[in-house]
Amino acid sequence: MLREPPAFTPVTLLTGFLGSGKTTLLRRLLADPALHDTAVIINEFGEIALDHLLVERLDEQTVLLSSGCLCCTVRGELASAMRDLHSRRERGAVPLFRRLVIESTGLADPFPVLSTLRADPVLRHHFRAAGVVTTVDAVNGLAQLDRHIESMRQAAVADVIALTKTDLAEEEHISPLVARLGAINPAAQLLRVAEGPLSADDLLAAGGSLFKAVAEPEGAAHAKAHAFSIVVEEPLDWSTFGIWLTMLLNRHGASILRVKGILALQGEARPVAVHGVQHLVHAPTHLSCWPDSDRRSRLVFIVEGIDPELIQRSFAVFARLGASGTCDLSIPSSH
Amino acid sequence: MCALCGGLGGDEHWTDAVAREGVYTRNADPVQRRRERALRVRVANRALKPFGLRLADWQGASFLLTTLTGKSEIVGDLGHLWSTAERLSGRLCDPLDPDFLARLDANHA
Ligand SMILES: [Zn+2]
């Protein structure tokens, strides 16, 4: 047990392209008893924050920054969140944490976080950069490195590259990705985190104590991506939702960087979470309870080159389709 | 990875997830599964109608997609439904197309 705060609290930045498995990794890490003394700051890109709902550990040591991408809007907010955590720890208002993990949105460049840490007069005396962990998805990673400069940058600055979803990809697809990552960042330690047990220490305490310098990106690197949300008052019909989302992803999957939601379903007391990245949607999870008093379905999309209004309209038309006529369905008896 | 739907080889489609801890599925027992399949067929047929297609359950395990002229193809899951529908109808099944949405609303009203 810690009796006093460390002189310099190590700060690990957890980054990675959208949908590359950051939240899942963080959730696994937080389940590790070795990490009970880790504070977490989660930054969201989207109108409605969802990552913290999916992490399911929102306590006084978990700080959620409001919407906005770290690389352009919330640097000040990050600095003040860290100062606040620090001062609450000094006053004994939060448990003594000895590490801080900042989960940054998949679109962010790590540079602003690092520069915040260095530039702020309070922070630079109490925190130190401990390393960048970048998640790279074994299924979509290669295509993302080709298409998105941010993805390449995140791999380039990593101290540790956490290769996710290797259990979902063929070995013949993984090896070119590993070779490519090796060419981009030969110094990074590569961990296949989907397989076997995960040690928080391996990941967060891993060697890299110095951040490599990253050039500040020119202009908004993600100007093409839009995040928007759909909030629904009425419980959704699951069958209709499935028909709609599969139809949408079939035609527009390449432009839908991310879809993530917490859904209130007709006939279900507990919420259901869905996560998708491009064409890939993970098995839906049944959450143990609602994370707050809001019982509405909330879906966040991050899209490239699609008008959000079209998706909202389409969703509404399908929701009307599912709202009527499904409850009166009598099930034909099979025998 | 399947080039058509992005599905991963041997991996279940998310709408047909195998029942296991923490996963939401309507695959847990035969009654629930049959009911869910019937609901899907019903909703899918509303969305398929503008393309002149019709979906039916096929042996409780797959679906049969049929055109107005009687051409048909077996579809394993919803992940393959729309790519097959596009091939059979020769049209793009775009849920964002305003004309499609207008027809869907009108048919349904
Ligand atoms: Zn397929």
3D structure, described in words:
The complex is a heterodimer of chains A (335) and B (109). Chain A has 335 residues and is an alpha/beta fold. Chain A has helices at 22-30, 51-55, 75-90, 111-119, 123-126, 141-147, 149-156, 171-184, 200-204, 238-252, 308-323; strands at residues 9-16, 38-42, 62-64, 99-103, 127-137, 160-164, 189-192, 225-232, 256-263, 272-277, 280-281, 285-286, 297-304. In chain A, helix 8 (171-184) links the parallel strand 6 (160-164) and strand 7 (189-192). In chain A, helix 3 packs across helix 4 (111-119). The longest helix of chain A is centred in the first third of the chain and has 16 residues, at 75-90. The model of chain A is unreliable at 45-58, 66-74, 207-223 and 325-335 (pLDDT under 50). With 109 residues, chain B is an alpha+beta fold. Helices cover 39% and strands 15% of the residues of chain B. Chain B has three helices and three strands; from the N terminus they run αβββαα. In chain B, a hairpin with a 3-residue loop joins strand 1 (53-58) and strand 2 (62-67). The longest helix of chain B is centred in the middle third of the chain and has 19 residues, at 30-48. Chain B is globular. The model of chain B is unreliable at 1-10 (pLDDT under 50). Classes of the chains: A alpha/beta (335), B alpha+beta (109).
What keywords describe this structure?
heterodimer, A: 335 residues, alpha/beta, six-stranded antiparallel β-sheet, 11 helices, disordered C terminus, B: 109 residues, alpha+beta, 3 helices, binds zinc ion
Please count the beta strands of chain B (DSSP E, at least 2 residues each): 3
Radius of gyration of CA atoms of chain B, rounded to a whole number: 15 Å
Helix share, percent of chain B: 25-40%
Query: Termini separation of chain A (Å)?
Result: 64 Å
- Which geometry of chain B do the CA atoms define? globular
What is the SS-derived class of chain B?
alpha+beta
Instruction: Give the oligomeric state.
Output: heterodimer
Major sheet description of chain B: 3 strands, antiparallel
- The average pLDDT value of chain A, as a whole number, equals 74
Strand content of chain A: 15-25%
Distance between the termini of chain B: 40 Å
Report the portion of residues of chain B in β strands.
Answer: 5-15%
Strands of the largest sheet of chain B, in order across it?
Answer: 1-2-3
Write down the overall geometry of chain A: globular
Determine the structural class of chain A based on helices, strands and strand pairing: alpha/beta
Bound molecules: zinc ion
The gyration radius over C-alpha positions of chain A equals 21 Å
